C-alpha cells in the first residue's frame, strides 16, 4: 500500500464526522471511493516511527508545531488512486492544514495540490515519477 498523511486544521471530531459521511458503512479504517483506507493515527500509535527526522522537522516548521495526530490514508495498490487521494486530501484540507506523501519530504498545502504544483520534480502523490527516478538512479 501507498500512504498519505493529512494534518487537517479541524478538530478530530469534525474529521470523524466527515469520514463517516464519506463512508457510512465502514469505520477504522473507513473506505472511501473503493480504494482509500483513511484512519486516524496518533503519536501513541507511533505516528512518526518510520519518518526521517528531516521530514518531521519540515512538518513541524510548516505547521508551527508537531502534530499529535493525522489521518493516514492508505491507497490500494490495485488501482492508480491518484484522483481519489487528491480529492480526499483536498476535502480534509478544506479548512486548512497540510499533507505529506510517501514520495517526498515536502509539506503540501491544499493550494499546491489543487494547482498540481511540482516540487523537486514531483507532484503530490506522484508515485510513478518517484519510482522512475529511483529506477534511473540505480
TrEMBL record:
It comes from the Bacteria. This is SnoaL-like domain-containing protein. It comes from Micromonospora chalcea.
Amino acid at each position: 500500500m501507498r500512504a498519505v498523511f493529512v494534518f487537517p486544521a479541524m478538530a478530530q471530531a469534525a474529521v470523524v464526522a466527515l469520514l463517516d459521511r464519506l463512508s457510512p458503512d465502514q469505520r477504522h479504517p473507513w473506505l472511501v471511493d473503493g480504494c482509500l483506507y483513511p484512519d486516524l493515527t496518533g503519536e501513541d500509535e507511533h505516528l512518526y516511527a518510520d519518518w526521517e527526522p528531516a521530514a518531521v522537522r519540515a512538518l513541524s516548521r510548516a505547521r508551527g508545531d508537531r502534530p499529535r495526530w493525522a489521518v493516514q490514508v492508505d491507497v490500494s495498490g490495485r488501482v492508480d488512486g491518484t484522483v481519489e487521494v487528491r480529492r480526499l486530501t483536498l476535502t480534509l484540507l478544506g479548512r486548512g492544514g497540510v499533507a505529506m506523501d510517501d514520495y517526498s519530504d515536502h509539506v503540501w498545502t491544499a493550494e499546491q495540490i489543487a494547482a498540481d504544483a511540482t516540487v523537486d520534480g514531483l507532484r503530490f502523490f506522484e508515485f510513478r515519477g518517484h519510482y522512475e527516478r529511483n529506477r534511473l538512479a540505480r
